[in-house]
Design brief:
membrane, 226 residues, Hydrogenase_cytochrome, mainly alpha, 9 helices, transmembrane helix, 3% strand, Cyt_b561_bac/Ni-Hgenase, 2 strands
Length: 226
């Protein structure tokens, strides 16, 4: 904590967030280009898997506000928050609010399905996923169809996320973008400040983070080498 601000998002959470944005954007572009760009499209898929694996590990072993245990709320609490939000009276949180916390889980699961199906995809021309040999041709074609449909769903999820950020940023005056850039949020910002400030010690834990990143990278390498 510095001055009237609290360090909420550590460097690894912020890097995960912006790298995922960049990689998904580049994956979309390379997929649209086709041809030789498909090799980069595949690499983007590997990167997405690595990022997701790291974020899951960091969600259990990371800093206070990065942990799932800190921002995943019960269904009842989530519905209560939603009801208050529909009335424009939802409380503010330093870290993810109940809906935002579950949105993180949905995004991680969706990205896993998106990149995972890509491992078995086959464009029936010259680009194949690294695990296409583990399934039959017909199944590979069906998985490819799901891979494309899932991306349409991912675009919807991204659109909803952007709309939610704009709502909180512009209408509720929550500095979400600033927080994800600097890691800091105003100390008096949250109505749930007492509950949120279980710990303000969110030092990045560089060694732990780098070790988990290496584990994530090794996991992806091992997977695509099957």
């Amino acid at each position: 904590m510095s001055g009237n601000h609290i360090r909420v998002w550590d460097i690894f959470v912020r890097l995960f967030h912006w790298l995922l944005v960049a990689v998904i954007g580049f994956a979309w572009w390379t997929g649209e280009q086709g041809g030789d760009w498909m090799e980069w499209h595949k690499r983007c898929g590997y990167a997405v898997l690595g990022l997701v694996i790291f974020r899951v590990l960091w969600g259990f072993a990371g800093t206070t506000y990065a942990r799932f245990s800190h921002f995943l709320y019960s269904p009842k609490a989530t519905l209560t928050y939603l009801a208050a939000m529909l009335k424009g009276r939802e409380p503010l949180y330093l870290s993810h609010n109940p809906l935002g916390g579950w949105a993180v889980v949905v995004l991680l699961l969706w990205c896993t399905l998106q990149a995972g199906t890509g491992l078995f995809a086959n464009d029936d021309i010259f680009t194949e996923g690294p695990l296409v040999h583990l399934v039959g041709y017909d199944l590979s074609i069906e998985i490819t169809r799901w891979h494309k449909l899932l991306f349409d769903g991912l675009l919807i999820i991204v659109a909803v996320h952007i709309a939610a950020v704009l709502y909180h940023q512009l209408l509720r005056k929550e500095p979400l973008l600033q927080g994800m850039l600097t890691g800091n949020k105003p100390a008096g910002h949250s109505h749930h400040q007492a509950a949120d400030r279980v710990s303000v010690a969110v030092s990045a834990g560089w060694l732990k983070g780098l070790v988990l990143a290496a584990i994530a990278a090794a996991s992806v390498w091992g997977l695509i080498s099957l």
